[in-house]
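Continuing the series of single-chain predictions for the mutant panel. This is the parent chain; the variants come on the following pages.
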Amino acid sequence: MQYKMEKPVGGSIGQEKYQCTITWRNGQFIADEPVKNGGKDTGPDPYTLLLSSLVSCTLVTLRMYIDYKGWDIPAIVVNANLFQTKQGEEANTFIDRDISFPEPVDKEKKDRLQEIAKNCPISKILEGNLKVRTFVYHEENDEKQIRYTNGDVTVVWKPDFCKHSGRCVSQLPQVFDVKAKPWVNMQGATTEAIIDQVKRCPTGALSIEYNKDRTG
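Parent structure:
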């Protein structure tokens, strides 16, 4: 398992309704809810952020293709919106994506670009087999704990908190291998690599204890 983003997109919220601080690899921006939902509209709402992903991905994909073909198309405009319908207990969401060109473009090129737009990565994600996995971090102690040490640090495993996200076994398999006994090989990587990987555990099932005089 290899994540698309080198650094995850993060977010936090305080008591200011409903202002969220979103952190990405190169800075921060504010997300909010519109006034009608109790927010102050100081930033894009979640639906806007979703649609902006599709719009920007479509624009970039089309620009790449146009440049590759050497076509003289100076500008592209994409608008997106969504609506939802409900049939019994089943809800269906439809996203409409409208593409236009401020300057004249012949029909054949328009038809081709319509097909290319369907292949933009975000389109494929939205229309593919998408699953959202949710993990909650536990910093509290649990009676059942198993420890593995290399003399420098100790990895503490709390089995009851483990939700098998797969991050440890896929990203540092030389240390974490569920088919091995013991499943944690503290000699399989450097102490720094083990510490870095344990910090990525989303549930708190894995944590680090520093031995001797070492601190985090």
